Predict the 3D structure of the following.
Amino acid sequence: MIALTVNGAPNSFAGDPATRLSDALRDTFGLTGTKVGCNAGDCGACTVHIDGVEACACLVAMGQCDGASIATVEGLAVGGMLAPLQRAFHAHGAAQCGICTPGMLMAASGLLARNASPSKSEVEDALGGVLCRCTGYQKIVEAILDAKAFEGPAARAGTVTGVVGTSLAKVDGIAKITGTEHFGDDGVPADALRVRVIRSPHARATFEIGDLAGFRAKHPGITAILTSRDVPSNGYGIYPNIKDQPVLAAGHVLYRGDAIMALVGTPQTLAAVDERDLPIDYQPLAPVIGIDAAKAAGAPQLHAARSGNILADGGVTRGDINAAFAASAHTVDVVNETSFVEHAYIEPEAGWAIRRGNTLDLHVSTQTPYQHRDEVALVMGLPPASIRLIPTACGGGFGGKLDLSVHAIVALAAWNTGRPVAYAYARPESMMASTKRHPARVAVKAACDARGRLTAVRAHAELDTGAYASWGPTVANRVPVHAAGPYRVPTAKTRGTAYFTNAPPSGAFRGFGVPQSAIASEAAMDELADHCGMDWLAFRRLNALRAGDATITGQKLDRSVGIVATIDAVTPHWRAWTAEATAFNRASRHLKRGAGIACSWYGIGNTSLSNPSEMRVGIDATGQVTLYSGAVDIGQGANTVMVQIAADALGVAPETIRLVTGDTALTPDAGKTSASRQTFVSGRACQLASLDLRRQLFELAGAPLDLVEDRSVRLRLTDGRIAVETLSGTHAAALRDLDGHGRFDPPTTPLDANGQGNPYACYGFATQVALVEVDTELGLTRVLKIAAAHDVGRAINPQQVEGQIHGGIAQGIGLALMEEYIPGRTENLHDYLIPTVGDMPEMTTFIIEDPAADGPFGAKGVGEPALISTAPAIFGGIFKACGVRVRKVPVLPHRLLAALRKNGDAR
């Protein structure tokens, strides 16, 4: 028996002394605020205090805790009162998805216990072992530095009221900072069975499964073994006409990580299984690795219906491209290659299911509840109505949780066993089996006239879509629309081609291919500017789209075209940092600095496809307003934004609104959380639903209906009565149950054979400037400062907009300088590097508001636009610093040194 104190209370543990402290805290003591992101001490999400010292609970055995005092995030709040540090986190918006927040709070509280007034560098040192994929760290650091201001009875508190345009504190923020938020592996029933999926060790192979009965007899704790024969409809995928990925492979595998069978049983039994004992006979085949191998003559055809291993091929043609190039004064050619990039959300894929008669409850981490419900129903051969999908909190997504992961497996296992079944990916399994950012080879030829005005752009993006379709067609079709950048380009020919290979499936990842495309197109803008002898910023401003201009798809942009405003916002930083770098370089030998700039644009929502959201806002006879929102919050703040929109449109205080979110049995379908669409599309549906309810309340009270959309007219809901106060008097009535409904589908048109049409209802625009420092001896690049200006239409919640920009910059730095997923080699958070707090530069943000006609209060999206400009701005800074461009991304030290050597040889 191990005796210990947990959060000040005596406790004991009678299990195996080798049990991880993290597992004991979660499974024995029910303290699920301690999160498990890697079980290797790499992510820091499980940080706790042991006798007052911070430690990763996943690395500590219970046998080491005898007599110890353990403190977890649940112990920070005392007597129901949040700790000052927690209040600071809430007020500063320091928690986004919330999965890393407990670890951050424990690391920070340990620092503050030792040093009540730490410096910024001391805070960064304390947080160095805790990874965050959402926030970009800046608001976390600011909250810790400001924690003292939240001490005492008169302490500042986070904003509790607010309307559109104010930084309302997250409506779901308290759960995130107290550790009570339930993610996919939290809240699992105590009697749940667990799943272990057996995955292929080969990238391409055939296989046979032998005597499972004999194997099972040797492992009596196994309740069930599922294979392809147990899957009623063994194929799934994003598109109605492409169901090419098996839940469990049937006789052949197409990537290392393909699922072959699922073992269902107790955790102890599953952990004891040696995969070498499984009766699986593999016959490895030569894999198709990379785009060139997929294109090669005689290459194996990985999907019989896809000739030439081509999944998707599409493009845009506008004007006579050859004539335009022939008539141009300057032309440049750029080819860039990018690598696989891992989502690296701190919460691995997780969820659980329970059968209830002829229905199934599915609790999973997801970005798209209705789509996943329907996909699981298809796989199981059940009507969608028989499955209730209840989203758990989503600990980061970035597109990676748009695809099925644990969903179908736990559903089948629970259905077949009649027991609750849970499944959480281990970190290596998550990185082996999940989708990635498409590697791309992007070739751009661009031209301008003698005055620097763009005349033509030709671009071709070849994309490695991996073993299965996933979101490959979406990426291949979005890239050509965006390939010319946010500029006036009268003539263009752009194309995107996605190829099947034996790599992990490439799917959706923040930007849907536009970040890869922008790296090449923005380098072309830099080089054209140099050919013209123009300043890079001036060249971009000259060519930037303006209201009334047409895009390369022929879409006329009548309004909400804020790209010039974003350029103007960062102009002082561009000038100052360029001068600063020039002065620095005169006095420095091997350290060199440079400023780079990049512009970007991003179409909000689906490309030329129906993209609707529905929302419901109700009121009961007591005056309780309830927002039924299916817009899943993955950390970007959708829950808070929807409440603000509903409150402002309805005319009530946001704190009076009860939020019901995500559950497919309770909420309308608000579509997927991707493509930066939720604020724009679901937000507009929410506004319409709120106005619908407001109109009904006006009618009930006999108030003038011409004042329904007058936001100065507020409602009073008291004692079961509605009062509408207008200049003509107060109109009142007894309340009754009412529902407001809203539906919005952005107005778009299909693209014709030449890619002409209106693919998006609005676009987000951005300009970022980066100041970088290059060590020419070591090949290291450090980003010192970034200024980012983003046209978001209208900032519903400015604090959350800033947080999205910070997080996008962090992922852009990772894309540019460190993140390269290599199957079989970088399947953990030790070998696969993502930015830490120490990698982040000083960030300055500018929110530009050029309202969108169809957006709620003019709002557009910012989630994906936040990322796109960062990497090309960094690469421009590297060129300015040391005169080289590395065409293979990320710019790792060995690549930069090779480019420097080559450049030196050329000289």
Q: What stands out?
A: The CA atoms of residues 766 and 790 lie 4 Å apart. The radius of gyration is 27 Å. The chain is about 30% helix and 25% strand.
